[in-house]
Amino acid sequence: MWLNYLKIAWRNLRKQKVFAFVNMIGMSVALCAALLLSLTAYQQWSYDNFHENRDHIYQVYEEEYKANRIAKSMSVPDPLADVLRKEVAGVKYVTRVSNDNLPVRYGNNHYYFDIQMVDNDYLKMFTFPFVKGDPQNALQQLNQVVLTEKTAASLFRNEDPVGKTIEVNLQGKWRPFIVSGVAAALPDNSSISFEMLTRFENIPMYAELKNRWNESGYPVFMQLEPNVTTAAFDRQIKPLVHKYFAENIAELKKNGGVPDKNGELLVLKTISLNDFHLTPGNTYYSGLNQFYPWLMLILAFMITAIACINFINLSVARSFTRSNEVGLRKALGAQDKQLIFQFWSEAFLLCCFAFVISILLTCILLPHYNRIFRHRLTLGLFQHGWLLLSIVVGFFTITLLAGGYPAWKVSRLNIISVLKGKQNFSSSNGMQRSLIVVQFVVAIVLISCTVIIGQQLKFVQSAPLGFNSTQVISIPVDNAPVTAVTAMRSKLLMESEVTGVTAGQFNLGLGKDGSSGRWMRSFDYKGHSVGTQCIEVDYDYASTLDLKMVAGRDFSRDFGADTTCVVINELMAKQLGEADPIGSLIEMDDRRPLRVIGVVKNYHYESLHKKIEPLTISLAKPVDLSYIFVKVNTANPAVTIKKIEGMWKTLNPLSENAPSFLDENTDRLYRQEKRFSKIFINGAVLAVLISCMGLFAIAVLVMAQRKKEIGIRKVLGASVGSIVMLLAKDFLRLVIIAVIIATPAAWYFMQRWLKGFEFHVNIHWWVFAMTGAIALIIAFLTVSMQTVKAALANPIKSLNRD
């Protein structure tokens, strides 16, 4: 019986090629988009799930409750690691982590690798499969290193790396290390990435930091015993915080700190490994906004829902032409359930074809999707049982929704009315029109969001940042020796297009090396607490970046004492509370006081997501400079940056990160927003196209129902234009209703999104007016394709009874 239904369905589809083609294309495109978006969401949620102990691994971080804010630090004092091991029951493993990009050599092979310096417990906590060596003993000795397969292949080619000696450049000196193991390639869904591992004791200044409680150096991770909860850990750590952080707590209390609800001024908190990837800025391995995978699923649902609505409307419109068939079959004794199965089998067959096409489209488009949206999806994700089951269940649900309602509707036709030619589909109009409104609500929301996101991106790219971003090139030093940096400065100043050279400890924006940073310091100034961001720079920093001095002067080589001086921004000057801050002495640590010699105008040294904070600028030691900044005046920026890159390669052959203009760096700070924008644009285009197909289906149905009315109006002298407007106004009314519903929804979502920026555009009414106008124009053009055809039809044929 079921096979017969499918055979009949196949014959009917072959007779209705246009209907089948339009429905199949709309559904296959929507299913392809839904598959890609769902795969993305699944991968984002699957991050780090390969670690066997993931449910028991946490990062420990610190929160201080100051007078006017909560200061969060993801780094903690180094000696805390030993305290956790020895004094907290239930802590199984502890590791500190430091990342650095360092030069490595083996024979004639020289490379820069991302080296992670960790404690011996690291490979006991995290599950990284080895292809060579034993992970439990791979970091027993201080001179041992673990390589990834790719790193080993780069250094050793076809040699067995285990037991071989390589050299790592630490603080300008080559030190030998023995390869103790090779880790398999890291999974694509790993928050943690590295190319080499070695012991944490190899970091610079380890001997000084290991007993220093007043300085937060590096992040600390721990693994709890399976029977120990975070609540039990919190109870144990509280008295230890009072014991070891007593000085910090006393200073917070002295400076007017406001305790939390438990009366604490300083607390240690934890965040689970399961939350690393979707907790932006909250962990050492910070990732995406946690809303991102949900956004993928919401868009997948919206696009699929629009396709289902379109399928339903087309099916109902087509059913109108088959009413005589339905009436005849019912007269011959066909039962309602048989008609339902027949029409549903046609929908099922059509959906199967669409599903197969969507799978092929997914395979073809996957590389392009990964490139555009910066994902790393692979077809291997289809191997996961739960994902396959979800796809199959989702497909059958879609088939039931898309094919079930039209089949049920057709089976309910009154046999007498059908055979008399008096069938009336008006009772279904309410449902169909509601579905059209839903389609356009989704489309209008997506279009509105796309416009507002585009406005914000344009704003952040054109907003004045307070420094010269268009003419300054940033060159990552890549651990080059000080002599190379000095030589580069000399060579640059000899170039005619170079108008200034300086250097800094941190980059501005996000360079091609993926690095950016700042550090926060607090100290007591004349009886009140002062907090400031700190950066260390070279001479000519302000002049090269075109920072505006509002008082005092910049650092100068003519003043040898400037090594003990600082330049501050306006907010820092305001925080000091001095009418004239020039000459003020501040003590940030136990070293000698620093004298303020200048005040620079506030500038955006971080993204527009954050407000400008007090800033203190000091002179750096040459060895601490990580970026060279070059101000150029050139008519051909591409040629100039290529030339400068070649000069740097000559002096530092091991450099691996290319120079970039600062406007490129600042632009990279908003990669996630750009990703959202692309997703919304593509989603909006799909939603509009599929919605227009649904609107077209309704127009076909209505024109068929009102064919005789149109003929009579033409005989009575109605013009083509008046008939078109008469027929189109009902559809335009639906779109207007959709605009009214979609506008507050889009405003709410975008208002929430813009709160993530300290500096953002305002949402203007004309955005929604423009979006509504676009929707009305698109709807009118879509409907006009049928209304004009109906208005131009010969009234004699329209009035002739079929």
TrEMBL record:
The chain crosses the membrane at residues 291-312, 347-367, 387-408, 435-454, 679-704, 731-751, 763-783. It comes from the Bacteria. Residues 298-415, 684-786 form the ABC3 transporter permease C-terminal domain. Its main location: membrane. Pfam families: FtsX, MacB_PCD. It is a multi-pass membrane protein. It is found in: Cell membrane. Residues 21-239, 441-603 form the MacB-like periplasmic core domain. Keywords: Cell membrane, Membrane, Transmembrane, Transmembrane helix. InterPro entries: ABC3_permease_C, MacB_PCD, Macrolide_Exporter_MacB. This is ABC transporter permease. It comes from Chitinophaga nivalis.
